[in-house]
Prior knowledge:
heterodimer, A: 483 residues, alpha/beta, Fumarate Reductase Iron-sulfur Protein, Chain B, domain 2, FAD/NAD(P)-binding domain, 5-stranded parallel beta sheet, 32% helix, 17% strand, disordered N terminus, B: alpha/beta, Elongation Factor Tu (Ef-tu), domain 3, Rossmann fold, 7-stranded antiparallel beta sheet, 7-stranded mixed beta sheet, 27% helix
Amino acid sequence: MSPVDGTAAPVPGKPRHRPARIPRTPMPERDAVRRARDFDEVTLGYTEEMARAEASRCLQCKNPTCIEGCPVNIDIKSFIGEIIDGDYHRAVAVLKERNALPAVCGRVCPQEAQCEAHCVLAKKGESVAIGRLERWLGDFDLACELEGRCVPEVGEDTGKRVAVVGSGPAGLACAGELRRSGHAVTIFESLHATGGVLTYGIPEFRLPKHIVQSEVGMLEEMGVEIVCDVVVGATYTIDDLMTEEGFDAVFVGNGAGLPMFLGIPGENLNGVYSANEYLTRVNLMRAYEFPKADTPVWRGRKVAVVGGGNVAMDAARTAKRLGADEVFLVYRRSAEEMPARKEEVHHAQEEGVEFKMLCSPVEVLGKDGWVTGIVANTMELGEPDASGRRAPMCVMGADFTIDCDTVIVALGTRANPLLSKTTPGMEINKRGYIVTDENGATTKPGVYAGGDIVTGSATVILAMGAGKRAARAMDEWLMGGVR
Amino acid sequence: MFPIVHIRQLSDAVFEMGVHAPAIAKKARAGQFLMLRIDENGERIPLTFSDWSAEEGWIRFIFMRVGKTTHQLSGLRVGDSLADVVGPLGVPTHVEDMGRVVVIGGGVGTAVAYPVARAMCAAGAEVTVIVGARNADLVILEDEFRALPLKELIIITDDGSAGRKGLVTAPLKELCEAKAVDHAMAIGPLIMMKFCAATTREYEIPTVVSLNPIMVDGTGMCGACRCTVGGETKFGCVDGPDFDGHAVDFEELMSRQRVYSDDERLADAEYDRECRCHP
């Protein structure tokens, strides 16, 4: 990013904003062939000129609808207004009023289904690229010297201590809000690095880890304490935290970490991975640097990834980067029903991932303990099911074999029972997710929860929204109606 | 960072290490394990507790120098630190007075057999321990076992250089034959546990084995440690590490244990090369 003068004074007697009638500003990205060989970021972000041009498209609506589409209700109109006026520091401040991780969310939020879907311009053509502007501002802030960065103000010390379990999106958002209210906050992370799914799950080429670490660092700048290598449910129970360790309240944002498998024969052959394992080896443990980094990963030549979500795309694109000659994405419905973001699908296709739609694996084949292929059934689509998507149905007698030496299963995750098992009085539902009210309060007094461990696998921003809502409720509970 | 407070070389290639980790020491129980990472580039590896002291705030584990990580570990000294230690993980070994219990420890697995035997003794069981090793040099923790109120300690080595000559299954079979066993627990190499389970199956003696599959996080997140038990897929880290020895698919586990053997050779070679540059 070019160094920009973020303090450019707005023009006195500011003229009325006249929206520019120009097409949506594309974001520069690296050439597909070259980028598919390394782990550097794919998209390059706007330059200042691009950001100004894109911001100038905003209508600055009297009643902005984009804000309704944002799970954390960022004042989108105002931050874009500040970009138009050239006051980038103020723009960042507006953004951070609602979202502590703009450089992260600017990259991984499904804006096309949220704020941008609500943009008035979307009705007639192309919405303002709100996500790209958010990312540009987030990066602008991180590129500033520390003293120039926007650190949200911390409220007066309340004397209350809160433990946050998990340093993923929900925990980070919750911790930031609680700290702003003046509570002492300690985050407990089970892994050796912070960020949760942002670190172990989302690949470097989509979300560079230094971005995650910098935005987490801002929370530490605010006085949030982070302790890694602590598994709540094992090292401490929640009851330990609220008695011996002296915390007044606990927020649980430990995510839904247990990978699901297909449950078909051959799934325990060597060369079959859960997407969680594959991505954790590569992202968290940096297996792509093996043997410089000590953790290995099996580098298959022909890789089949099972699933159609963002995680499946991440795994497929990672396999390409690890040197696979062929990567197949095997999905049981059609491309139409794939839950992955369009942008991710597009990037995967550009990088040479081959999509095999309407096929469902029924067996993993192997020889001498290693994967040699999968047998898949051809499917067709029937009536819409409970999810509203057309249900895949097996076409009888139409099974076929896909040769491969690696299978990556990306079917989603379920709740990890480690914490709930050791927390008496905290109700969970049949599927193991924590039961809460609309503000994240669990059935155990003083214990709140949010993110995937309540809703099941969802998006980064929804988890952040849940963390923030819980933080507000926790603040009220802690202060006993004082506020 | 977790400071190393104790190192003892038990044999040429086997070491006992103690680490200051008060929160973990307070919770540790027999049969549970920890994950450790030496430094920024390090692997996360699971190791089962061999001992701990809640009062003094330390935990201990025993490892054999086999690959790069354990080579590096064996080169550390008291006062050095490990980047990460996490635990206690896994379900503790089920301990109660099960009558006449035989605990079999093979090789470094003996390290895990020790706290299990100790806990079984404390629970009032009548405990016989069989310690097996390739040779006398690899027999570990003999003094510690002798200090427990065991019914009997049987040492057996492949070459007869200590105790009896043979494999652990021989004394195990004799005990079964004499109807002197109500419950067996085997901890050691997969092949040993497989044959121990095969031995007791004939006599229908409940037998628990402690598995040590490959893991990444150790908390249920990755599924690298999955194994088939009674036809169902289980995760070694959160469902285990203890399982019914008569239901475990050992063949599959032995195959899964070899996934990274080529990579391990590469890492070892790389490490050896570096070592020569920095004598």
